[in-house]
Amino acid sequence: MEFDAVFIGAGHNALAAAIHLATRGWSVGVFEKGDRAGGAIRTDEVTLPGFRHDLYATNLGLFAGSAFHGQYGDQLAKHGLAYAPAEHCFASPTPSGSWFGVSKDLDQTVTRAERLSKADAARWRSMLAEFGGDAPHLFSLLGSPMTASSLLKTGWNAWRGKGLGWMLDTAKMLSSSPREFLEANFESEEIRAAMAAWGMHLDFGPDVAGGALFPYLESMADQSFGMVIGQGGADTMIKAMVSLLESLGGTVMTNAEVTDIKRTSGRADAIVLADGKVVRARKAIVAGVMPRALVGTLLDGGTGNAAFDASAHKFRHGPGTMMVHLAMSDLPDWSASEDLRRFLYVHLAPDLDMMGRAYSSALAGDLPAEPLLVVGQQTAIDPSRAPEGKHTLWVQVRALPANIRGDAAGTITDRDWEAVAEPYADRVVDIIERYAPGTKGKILGRHVETPADLERRNPNLVGGDSGGGSHHLSQNFVFRPVPGWAKYRTPVDNLYMVGAATWPGGGAGAGSGFMLAKMLGGG
Q1: Which of its termini does the chain have fewer beta carbons within 10 Å around, N or C?
Q2: φ, ψ of residue 433 in degrees (nearest 5)
Q3: pTM of the entire structure?
Q4: Minimal CA–CA distance to 503: which of 516, 518, 522?
């Protein structure tokens, strides 16, 4: 077999790049080790028949708002892509019964804020108003490749449009921790906690520098646009992408593990599959893998660039994640308010100090006594995911150690994730029960995936890191994936990288794939 471009891995970034190149007349082949395309976007009936669970990623807002979707959304819709919009986005209750939640209706959000602090309600309105003018410049930065010309253009436009003062304020925010940013803007612990929880979706504990941006952007974007999930499951996105690509003449092969990248005169020109077949690439080989896997597994002897290889081997991963999927007879009855049953996400993380303890425990190798729980109520938005009258819960547990050294609560003595899975899932369910008594009695089925299971399912989720590598400042922007190589190229001619390990990082936004494809194929 021979193609213009060969892709290693069938994550959404690879599929986006392949689609764009196929429309430019390139022949493309995508080779995936697993049994289906999609990487960490996968939907399965893992508890009981008829209950469809997004095993990992579920929020498709980044994809729906992406430049790739802007260009190909209509075609993807013809191939089956459909969304279920969420008007009530995320909420955080406290054990005392107070809570804050963000709904697309601004008046509803502000009313909730006013119950906590009139000053915070006014600040929420003003921050949202500022976001309208700030967003184009911030999203231009996040949607541009880390090239000198792109950065200069983005900076010039921001300086002309907003001025030097705004640029300095933005630089301060980009380098601030969630706690610094939130304490400077809000006095309510509930509002601070609700926003800070988004930092923990990546690898930003409350006191990690550079962690303020995601809580700010996610909160303001959800307030402005709401959220979306896939109708019937997140895999609607992957199925549509594969169908579109194949209609363009592209090839997607699953159960096709790549074991080696071949070079001729220093130029990558072929891959070798586990069955020994050789697939040649005339123009490009695009690897959707972690840097360590590229230089340590796929390239015999590394790239030949000592600095690149050393940095790739040192590529850092964030804390691990556990997924607990529940088939339910009904949604939880949240003590704080019946309104919480309408929200897509309910974060169980009542304050910044609790999040800080969980994050620090994970970094030290300890199981947190109380981890942050992201409770996804997808069937409140999309009832088609469960039998009539029934529901699913998608519980993401953050942050956890890849390798267990101890238990902060002192009750779990095992140190292997296989043995710890069920006892720790019990701890997770007990936490939900405290916020919503009676939840245990509604559970019809349970499926648990530990950080070790996540990596076993998808080697890119190293140690259960669902973000595709730490996003701390030293490994983000121009430093992602390694310093000096933020433009998707590698030291090997014809060999490129895409995926969460590359700029702009984790999430289902298809940014790296689309930006690389435009660099290779134009437009």
Answers
A1: C
A2: -60, -35
A3: 0.96
A4: 516
